[in-house]
Amino acid sequence: MALESRTTDHVDRQILHALQIAPRAPFARIATVLGVSEQTVARRYQRMRGAGIVRVLARMEPTHRPNGSYWSLRIGCRPGTADALADALARRGDTSWISIAAGGAEVTCGAEVEGDGSGLLHHLPRASNVLTFTAHQMLHHFPGRGEIDWILPDNDVTAEQRQFLAEGSAPRAGDARVEAADRPLIDELSRDGRASWATLAAATGWSQRQVANRVGELVGSRAVYFHLDVADVLVGMHSAANLWFTVAPAHLASVGARLADHAELGFVAAVTGSANLTAAARTPDARALYRYITTKVAAIEGIHNVEIVPTLTRVKQSHSLMVDGLMREPPR
């Protein structure tokens, strides 16, 4: 692959940041905010998507499914076996965010679990190469600015521009759940979260208005959300780590909310286990991670302990397999 297609500049990162704010915003609207042409936005996005730098996709919120839950798994394994274990996990449809961490001695994995968890959670501890296994159920996800602003921590997008980007895509409050009839819609959006209404209508057999209304209902109830998978290293984030916090129960909600607004953290959630809060950190390098821990984290009252587990290799993003640091779309 040509080197040019694997690099990003400031305009590319501005486009990615705009898509984080509003994943389905029209290219024309993004162009207006950035002060470039619509053709420039469309061309650069298609180049980055084709190169495996970014994917916009839809995900179902596990906690909004009947009997559904989401778990973070930490799997200690024998030396030399992490690659094979991570690869096997990555090919499952119920896993996400798979990394080889702790110098190659640990595989971390997100898992969507239905019912009593008799699938993945029951089978893994029996694997011969698994030495230790802990599973932490997600109790509460803390949404915040960190999920949106990590690509451009010092961004200059104003509140008015953010509102303009999201115009026409405000979620409708409701209690809709994903149903069997939604499967073709979800399947198409999980491949391309920016698929046109016409494409979605063709995939479902519904009218474009029906498709738009149904997407609005599912997003409004948080049964479905749009997400950007981004190749971190190619946007300047060379250090990734999973952080496991032990927080006083009286401070758990406030600490989670404060951490979620840190640009260094792309995900923050309260979980079960000895560490009751977990977060995913992205920084330009290890020195930046150290500065973050010893300044912004250290200033938060209620944190008793933090375990830092550096990521060695990312094997799977939320829905995309990683090959040589780039994303590969799953086969149709």
Structure description:
With 332 residues, the chain is an alpha+beta fold. It is built from twelve helices and twelve strands. The chain has helices at 10-21, 27-34, 38-51, 82-90, 120-123, 146-149, 159-166, 183-191, 197-204, 208-220, 252-260, 286-297; strands spanning 54-60, 68-77, 95-101, 106-114, 130-141, 224-230, 239-247, 265-271, 277-283, 303-316, 321-323, 326-328. The strands form three sheets. The protein has an eight-stranded antiparallel β-barrel. Strands 1-6 form a two-stranded antiparallel sheet. Strands 11-12 form a two-stranded antiparallel sheet. Strand 3 (95-101) and strand 4 (106-114) form a beta hairpin. The model has no long low-confidence stretch (mean pLDDT 87).
List keywords for this structure.
Arc Repressor Mutant, subunit A; alpha+beta; Alpha-Beta Plaits; two-stranded antiparallel sheet; globular; 332 residues
